[in-house]
């Protein structure tokens, strides 16, 4: 654990003690090994979320939004577009970042090469895909082999490891792009989508998040992808939304982690409510708890750094 995180770990440790003594015992961390391992994962998850706040206070090179550059990064590109008042393109970059993810070996290659159309024609921007979804699918189909070329590191991130590049299958990238456009609706754009959810939620960031989560009908975007996408909108300041729970329905890793921590299996709603209450003690947010529990249950006795 980094020296600067020791203070946070001590606070979280005291919070776990308080929760265990007053709300629900935590037999999953009865041993010192498991307790320290969970604390490491909680600190690491909070640090990953803190990263999004940190990069917003630093200068960002324009090369981050240029797919022709080695430094292309859709997350930082989203911030550049946000600061230029281009909300649609900023949210579109966030979608690229979540749909493809950052591969451990290939980095952002899939996002970079598809967004940049290999430099052969205009980028596949929000406006272009929204206006030409059929042409995008055709282009993707024609370039599948080029994207999958052997000997060059690529691939989706760990969170999207079962995703397909296919242009026409229901679970492929072509379907994901077209259904995302339909969900947002180009006639209203992302600004309209977000403002409508906040209006219906009476200004509540958590209720607005919940509305968007339940109404996000994007092919291949299950529970985790929807959660990741909407949380990144909030972390980048693209939408005033935040998760009010861990959204356990349909979860596997986080649910296993919660069950391990609490020492028994609960109905999804009960487990979610207990974790909401746990965050009232920890104060690090539901995303950090969800992420930490998922990673902790993979190796509860020995800390292993996992990346999405």
In short:
The chain has helices at residues 6-22, 32-55, 74-83, 87-100, 109-115, 126-131, 133-142, 144-147, 173-184, 189-200, 205-215, 223-235, 253-262, 268-282, 286-298. By secondary structure, it is mainly α.
Summary keywords:
0% strand; globular; 308 residues; mainly alpha; 2 domains; single chain
Describe the structure.
It contains 15 helices and no strands. Helix 10 packs across helix 11. The chain is 58% helix and 0% strand. With 308 residues, it is mainly α. It is globular, with a radius of gyration of 20 Å. It has two domains: 107 residues; 123 residues, no CATH class. The model has no long low-confidence stretch (mean pLDDT 95). 42% of the residues are buried.
| Structural classification | mainly alpha
Query: Which parts are unreliable, with pLDDT below 50 for 5 consecutive residues or more?
Result: none
Q: Indicate how many domains the architecture comprises.
A: 2
Query: What shape does the CA trace take?
Result: globular
How do the helices and strands follow one another from N- to C-terminus? HHHHHHHHHHHHHHH
Q: Quote the beta fraction.
A: under 5%
First CA to last CA: what distance?
A: 19 Å
* Rg for CA atoms: 20 Å
Main β sheet profile: none
How many E-type strands? 0
Count helical runs.
15
Oligomer: single chain
Mean pLDDT: 95
- Please give the share of residues in helix: 55-70%
């Amino acid at each position: 654990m980094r020296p600067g995180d020791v203070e946070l770990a001590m606070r979280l440790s005291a919070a776990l003690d308080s929760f265990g003594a007053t709300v629900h015992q935590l037999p999953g961390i009865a041993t010192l090994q498991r307790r320290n391992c969970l604390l490491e994962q909680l600190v690491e998850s909070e640090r990953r979320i803190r990263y999004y706040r940190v990069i917003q206070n630093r200068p960002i090179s324009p090369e981050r939004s240029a797919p022709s550059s080695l430094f292309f990064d859709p997350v930082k590109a989203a911030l550049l577009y946000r600061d230029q008042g281009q909300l649609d393109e900023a949210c579109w970059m966030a979608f690229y970042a979540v749909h493809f993810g950052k591969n451990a070996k290939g980095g952002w290659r899939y996002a970079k090469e598809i967004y940049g159309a290999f430099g052969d024609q205009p980028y596949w921007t929000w406006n272009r895909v929204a206006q030409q979804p059929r042409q995008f699918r055709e282009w993707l189909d024609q370039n599948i082999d080029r994207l999958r070329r052997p000997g060059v590191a690529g691939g989706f991130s760990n969170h999207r490891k079962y995703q397909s590049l296919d242009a026409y299958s229901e679970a492929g990238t072509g379907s994901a792009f077209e259904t995302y456009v339909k969900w947002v609706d180009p006639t209203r754009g992302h600004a309209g989508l977000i403002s409508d959810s906040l209006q219906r939620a009476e200004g509540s960031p958590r209720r607005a998040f919940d509305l968007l989560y339940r109404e996000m009908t994007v092919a291949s975007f299950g529970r985790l992808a929807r959660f990741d996408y909407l949380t990144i909108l909030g972390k980048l300041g693209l939408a005033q939304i935040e998760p009010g729970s861990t959204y356990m329905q349909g979860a596997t890793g986080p649910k296993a982690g919660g069950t391990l921590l609490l020492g028994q299996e609960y109905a999804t709603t009960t487990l979610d409510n207990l974790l909401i209450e746990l965050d009232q003690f920890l104060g690090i947010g539901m995303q950090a708890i969800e992420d930490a529990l998922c990673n902790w249950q993979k190796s509860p006795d020995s800390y292993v750094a996992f990346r999405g």
